[in-house]
Amino acid sequence: MAAIDKEQLREIREAVRAICVDFPGEYWRQLDRERAYPSEFTRAMTDSGFLGALIPEEYGGSGLGLAAAAAILEEIHRCGCNAGACHAQMYTMGTLLRHGSSEQKRKWLPGIASGKLRLQAFGVTEPGSGSDTLALRTTARRDNGHYVVNGQKIWTSRAEHSDLMVLLARTAPREEVERRTDGLSVLMVDMRDAPGLSIAPIRTMMNHATTQVFLDDVRVPADHLIGREGQGFRYILDGMNAERTLIAGECVGDGRWFIDKAAAYAGEREVFGRPIGRNQGVQFPIARAYASVEAAALMVREAAEQFDQGLSTGKQANMAKLLAAEAAWEAAEACVQTFGGFGFAEEYDVERKFRETRLYQVAPVSTNMILSYIGQHVLGMPRSY
To answer: HEC states along the chain?
Structure first.
């Protein structure tokens, strides 16, 4: 894939900003009050082609890489919007594009690119396994041209607003496989026609449209198997690495939004007859947060470029997610502290963004799990779990 240059990225960012202007803070505040889904925003992003950024042009997409996708999501968040309602369509592409068959791509990608099909749900996590993906219990049993799926998924965001779900299920018992990573398979579930599938919303501290999904003898056509049976864990890692890199891009956008807000407010807010930004106690935390966000942005860029080159990105994607999530939270803290009491007032959007960016300390993977990964797989230290 050809590398995208700075001028192209600048044009993409400008185009995203032009769309986000139509979705100001009041739009998101109203949705937050009602716990409603941003259908209009998602439609605008779909119609613009941005949600089809990673889909090859032959299937109706833009044929861009992860670097461009990360810039799109970053800019959405820097504008004060929230890509959480639609970002899964991008990161699930990592599994489908790299491991789906030509027939599967022809079947699903054109509809996803046009918006006729919505691919927003990623069914991996379960109540009893959490981050221990290899301990999942959802099963898929082969039966006359179908897989019969039974189990439960949790934290499956946007399931109520998606037509398709990328699902990870066990097709062979753990005790029958040679390696603990074997025996898991990826299925594409068409939720529009899935008797036995039910969805239960989970109300959380941020408006993230997350759910539990219950599967009771759900029949999935065998030709919806992505890649080879039993090799799904390896395939899903492509989606996870893309997800972590793209979420890291969102965190960079959040961090830059907080810093822009804090620096502007510090320059105009006067207390004791002078701008509060003259005080180093106010100025220094913002400056330090800025440095952290900019450093994280470099790691995000490296992770995206590695992915676009088809290289292994486990190390880069995890570090990008860790650094960007922590930098965004540092910027959020500095912003609230700068605004003081007004930081808790709904009309400034600081408290909404504060809640939203806190999520990424634990999702889609917690910072502690990333540190364990780095310790074991990058630094070669003993396995900690």
So the answer is: CCCCCHHHHHHHHHHHHHHHCCCCHHHHHHHHHHCCCCHHHHHHHHHCCHHHCCCCHHHCCCCCCHHHHHHHHHHHHHCCCCHHHCCHHHHCHHHHHHHCCHHHHHHHHHHHHHCCCCEEEEECCCCCCCCCHHHCCCEEEEECCEEEEEEEEECCCCHHHCCEEEEEEECCCHHHCCCCCCCEEEEEEEHHHCCCEEEEECCCCCCCCCEEEEEEEEEEEHHHEECCCCEHHHHHHHHHHHHHHHHHHHHHHHHHHHHHHHHHHHHHCEECCEEHHHCHHHHHHHHHHHHHHHHHHHHHHHHHHHHHCCCCCHHHHHHHHHHHHHHHHHHHHHHHHHHHHHHHCHHHCHHHHHHHHHHHHCCCCCHHHHHHHHHHHHCCCCCCC
CATH number of 234-378: 1.20.140.10
Q: Which residues partner with 119 through β-bridges?
A: 164
Q: CATH assignment of 6-114, given 1.10.3720.10, 1.10.540.10, 3.40.50.970, 2.30.30.30?
A: 1.10.540.10
Region 319-346 average pLDDT: 98
| Cα diameter, the chain | 79
* Upper half-sphere CA count for residue 364 (Cβ side, 13 Å): 29
| Cα dihedral across residues 225, 227, 228, 231: positive or negative | negative
Per-domain residue ranges of the chain? 6-114, 119-231, 234-378
pLDDT value of residue 93: 77
Reported as a pLDDT band with limits 50, 70 and 90, residue 1 is low
pTM of this structure: 0.95
